[in-house]
Amino acid sequence: MQKLEDKKISEVAATGKPAIVRLEHISKVYGIGETEVIALNDVSLVIEAGEYCSIMGASGSGKSTAMNAIGCLDRPTSGRYYLDGVDVSQLDDAQLAHIRNRKIGFVFQQFHLLPQLSALENVMLPMVYAGISSSERRDRAVAALTKVGLEKRLNNRPNQLSGGQQQRVAIARAIVNQPVLLLADEPTGALDSRTTHEVMNIFGELNRSGITIVMVTHEPEVAKTTRRIVWFRDGEVVYSHLTPEEMLHVAVAAT
Amino acid sequence: MDILDSLKMAGTTLAANRLRSALTILGIVIGNASVIGMVGVGQGAQRLAAEQFESLGPNLLFVSPGQPGQRRATLTAPKTLVLEDAKAIATQVPAIKEVSPQIQNQQQVTYGSKNISTLVIGTNPEFLTVRSFDVERGRFINEQDLKRNNRIAILGPEVANKLFGIREPIGQQIRIKNISFEVVGVTKPKGSFLGSNQDDAVFVPITTLANRIIGRTSVYGLQVTFISVTAQNPASMSAAQFQIRNLLRLRHKITGEDDFTVRTQEEILTIVNTITGALTIMLGAIAAISLVVGGIGVMNIMLVSVTERTQEIGLRKALGATQQDILIQFLIEAVILATAGGLVGTAIGMGGISLVSSFTPLKASVAPMSIFLAIGVSSGIGLFFGVVPAQRAARLDPIVALRSA
Ligand SMILES: Nc1ncnc2c1ncn2[C@@H]1O[C@H](COP(=O)(O)OP(=O)(O)OP(=O)(O)O)[C@@H](O)[C@H]1O
Ligand SMILES: [Mg+2]
Asked: Which of A64, B139, B150, B317 has its CA 20 to 30 A from that of A243?
């Protein structure tokens, strides 16, 4: 346990790799006065290029809030955030949209595919907003769907796909613009253990190919497949560099 | 994101919700159909009036009692125009060719047990040429009839048909106000004029009508309903108008305002056009209101749609759509819907118009200009009423939008 205590220091000496995510004293406060909720309390966190990292913690501990801030979907109340070296706290809405489009891929628990579009069209969507020519869109979307093993399901609508297949379409969509960072908030929360395994395999492969992945999960089984676990409690990062084995200890202690 | 992508995206979305899209545009469809229909009927009425005026005959002037202002004040026409005025015009105005005074009244006309109410017109032989009527069988009124107050009558084809059916009316006796008249002729069908059927009439000598049926009705002499006059040629129309006016002012000893009106055919057509034009505008305006209501309908459904598609909007934003992208997407959807409504409504309106044209004498039609205008206005309405829903969509917070499961 002594070792765990050391890990509480959120900033560990940099390994020399460039930081993809650098949160500096980020706070997020919802509401004012009586109803005030501090969702994030002075969070500092560095995630380096190529990392494969899980965020864990009790419900309401601020995991999603942190992910939203990292994903440039939300503006923190205070603090600085550098994404791939760029201070995004200073950017306006249109610039943030551009960052989300080019640098970040999102995978959600509820897949969020558009029901009226085929798998291929869903995957092409980020490229529409990136202004990529339609012929290139198609090629890249097919390549991305092939990468997640869905080359035979290009024209299926979401309701013609299983949950696991839908999540794989969503992953293809998340990587099609070649982002530097893949964010997944409980990506396996709606999947059974077999399809969870499939999705984790794809994540592992993507990480090996160089994409930085940050994933929120409640399942130790899932978190175990990542190399670093960040533990949240009451809006604060209590452990920033847990190994899978250490995480199991913390998880047991937390329950 | 270019406009083609936006159009395609909107098309996919709208096609995916076909029923809702159809219901959304219903108001616009109805609005457009009524605008096109109303304007078409109005323009048809205008054209019909023009055609009918042409069929009246060339170089025609009308002299009627009173002034337009006076006529509005009293329900019945003032009794200022008399038969002697017509005679004076015929003999003293150089620019005119022929004069046909006319006394007309709705009367009961009977033949045997048949009894109908029709317009009895007392006039003179010149009526035929002045008003471009023709006799089909028998003869029209002649000078003898006028001089002797002959009790003869010429039937309009419709009256002939109502009273006699397929039997020959010429030589038969009919009764007007219990005085018997011999039918001596039947006129050719002429059609209706400004809504009154010119074939549903009985023509009798003006003197017979005056002396045997009506009697002296004005202190100045025998009151006439109006006098039709033809000018020598188109160029002498205004001269004729001027001379008639001078003559009548003299005869009526007028120093102030005229107690009669002399109008050329064109002037009357202009008046009729003003009236039908105003009517067209009014009908069009009422229809336009329904178009606006249709626009509000689009806005309503679009607002519901924005609420329903909150997650989609959040997702698009997460994937990199800017506020502007979302705004444009929803605006384009609204404009496509409204334009489609405009097209469908116009088509229905045109269909209605061609129905009206084939079942009534109204040659209803719509200028291509009005069609483009109606569709353009529909698109504009879509744009206008799309702004509020589109802005609401564009301003959605992506996190809130994504979370609303
Ligand atoms: N829009 C909001 N308004 C007010 N409070 C909020 C809002 N969003 C989150 N919170 C609060 O902030 C805190 C952190 O929420 P967050 O969603 O980040 O938790 P989480 O760790 O993701 O939980 P879970 O595991 O259940 O998803 C919670 O107390 C939550 O109630
Ligand atoms: Mg969460």
From this structure: A64
Is A100's CB within 8 Å of B316's CB?
Answer: no
Report whether pLDDT(A4) > 60: no
Please name the residue whose Cα sits nearest to atom 7 of ligand 1.
Answer: A30
Instruction: Supply the pTM of this predicted model.
Output: 0.76
Q: How far is CA A155 from the centre of its chain?
A: 27
For Cα atoms A101, A104, A108, give the angle at the middle one, nearest 5 degrees. Answer: 100
Q: Are A153 and A120 in contact (CB under 8 A)?
A: no
**Taking Cα atoms as reference points, which of B254, B270, B264, B266 lies closest to residue B81?**
B254
Question: With a 6 A CB cut-off, is A62 part of the ligand 1 pocket?
Answer: yes
Chain B residues 300-339 with a CB less than 8 Å from chain A = 311-312, 314-325
pLDDT, tens digit, 9 for 90 and up, residues B98-153: 999 999 888 899 998 889 999 999 999 999 999 889 999 999 999 999 999 999 99
At which residue do the structure tokens 């069988």 appear? Answer: B137
Instruction: Please choose, from the candidates B204, B137, B138, the residue with its C-alpha nearest in 3D space to the C-alpha of residue B177.
Output: B204
Fold of A6-112+178-254: Rossmann fold (3.40.50)
Q: Are A62 and A40 in contact (CB under 8 A)?
A: yes
The ranges assigned to domains in chain A are: 6-112+178-254
Question: How many whole angstroms separate alpha carbon B304 and alpha carbon B372?
Answer: 30
Tell which of A98, A112, A132 to mutate to test the B interface (max B CBs under 10 Å). Answer: A112
CA distances from B211 to A54, A223, B175 (A): 115, 117, 16
What phi and psi, each to the nearest 5 degrees, are found at residue A240?
Answer: -105, -15
Q: What is the pLDDT of residues A37-61, one digit of tens each?
A: 999 999 999 999 999 999 999 999 9
Distance from residue A190's CA to the centre of ligand 1 (Å): 19
Domain boundaries, chain B: 3-51+271-403, 96-226
Residue showing tokens 């297949």:
A165
Indicate yes or no: CB of A94 within 8 angstroms of CB of B321: no
**C-alpha B138, offset from chain centre:** 35
